[in-house]
Task: structure prediction
Amino acid sequence: MDTIILTKDDIAEIVNRVGLHQLMDDIINKLRKTFRNFDDELTQVRARDGFSYLTPYPGVLEWMPVMQVDDFAVIKVVSYNPGNPLLYQVPTIISTLSLYNIRTGHLMALTDGTFATALRTGAASAIASEVLANPASEVVGLVGCGAQAVTQLHALSRLFDIKRVLAYDTDKTVLASFSERCRFLDLDIQIVPREELEAEADIICTATSVGLDAGPVIDAVNLKSWVHINAVGSDLPRKIELPLELLKESLVCPDYRAQAVIEGECQQLEPGEIGPELIQLVKNAPEYKAYQMSRTVFDSTGFALEDKAAMQVLLSLAKEVGVGRTLPVESIALDPMDPYSFAREHVGSELTRTATAV
Amino acid sequence: MDTIILTKDDIAEIVNRVGLHQLMDDIINKLRKTFRNFDDELTQVRARDGFSYLTPYPGVLEWMPVMQVDDFAVIKVVSYNPGNPLLYQVPTIISTLSLYNIRTGHLMALTDGTFATALRTGAASAIASEVLANPASEVVGLVGCGAQAVTQLHALSRLFDIKRVLAYDTDKTVLASFSERCRFLDLDIQIVPREELEAEADIICTATSVGLDAGPVIDAVNLKSWVHINAVGSDLPRKIELPLELLKESLVCPDYRAQAVIEGECQQLEPGEIGPELIQLVKNAPEYKAYQMSRTVFDSTGFALEDKAAMQVLLSLAKEVGVGRTLPVESIALDPMDPYSFAREHVGSELTRTATAV
Result:
């Protein structure tokens, strides 16, 4: 019973061999298919749960489980620590993904979840935009230009013909490096005042580390009448990015309602004011075409089903490319009735003597 | 940011070098210390949660998280599939343990949890028995002689001077191999009718795979007046091992009350009928000396604090013995603002060209 482990280098090799664009396309396609085929009799998704703490920064360590009935489960463990870049020079979001055989409980695979989270979060926004945004959208505005903004833009660029990118961030250092970080996309990126971004963008992504009770991060007084907004940043109670008035006049679609009402933009709304979930949008896309010329919001909190899809893509590509290693992590014995037998098998009969001699 | 991974072979090497008895003593001592020093301001323990299913056998895949505030978290993932030995020749319980730095979210270590679970479950019963059982206990009765019975007996043998072991199991094959599996303990093990076991034992451990609504597994009509029972097997709603009348006349102490009322023997009791938790027993052991000559029950459901202690012992011994490997599992980039930079660092500037060429 071995466990497949993909290291950082394995994932880098996948990117190298497959290319970033193909990888993003694979994730978008897998995710769209996952949503389209979703059947709640066959898949159990849990809202994330976790430990939260307030010092020195608000942060969380969370687990996000999903189970395919009679088949497998994926548990993502993900932490959100906005202090990370400054204090430890590591990303705000760090994560791993574990895949379990649901029949035996065996840990089948362990992979990074940080990169997968960034990819699938971008892919989810692209899929929501595909249903809800004006298909002729050419101008993308990014409020918050950190790590998530890179994958938001990357994913959108795979489904829309983007002519201009308008970038805004309260942190000038982050803003200054954004074009370089997105150089591989070969897009026209302009740093603009937020007012200009709001007035010009067909699609806006908010992906900020705004503090608790410190939002919203846009004014929304001069938006296009057809603007579609992917609100990606809110992932904690009391953390919000969009003004209530905007939410009330827009069709607001959460990725996973049970979670969005706790930590997404939906925490600002009454139950009756919340639109269909992303899965419903994808399953019934033609029904929502009518909304493409009005204001819509995708309330993205990130949920386990997306992580499952991303992990499946990574594992499948790892197999294709031939990377990854296997290790016997679980101490599983030949005799299931003897918890010590795995050790005896290993060291032979010497062990018994050593043990009794102690 | 590397992750320490202990494989099955690493754990076997620890057992080989340290010896089973020293290992069990280390776990007992660490667990006793963990309970004694427990401060709920510093440690957050979550009751286990998970996916459950009923076909082809009742089974669960559960996560059990515990956090040391400002320090680290341990998440055990554990499955309970009674069909495993027969269907897949693997143990009923399969598990892994993950250690996270709570500041950054980094996965610091991954180890087996199967062996650790068996060890700490034995250790917890031994510690409860140390407080509640007659200190002169010489006869141990085991109802259910599977994997857990081995570690129950092993742990008890480290704290009590056991003269006779009485073994009972409804499965004759399991029963027949029990003496051989416990040979390293050099104890007088006798296979007896259950009635004899109940009448003779000073300490009884029930560790069965009894079905839902199929318990209890003992009659309890002719027990010693000072018997102490470690009820280890109940770990699902509607799975119980002890008769209600026995519970009502005994001091019943759960390991973790919030969990025991859902899936332990305590699910049979009213709140007022439940005694102190194991942590309280250990913190105030002298207060409970009076119960050593009357009937007591330790309702063991297994909780995350025990797993944390077991993992700490394994990691510390791994360091001492010099086993384990480190792998960079998380795709953490030098530039925390660029989710793709880890791949660029790896493959150099070629990547950008490859990606844009797709």
Q: What stands out?
A: Residues 114-132 of chain A form the longest helix (19 residues). Chain A touches chain B through 106 residues (CB under 8 Å).
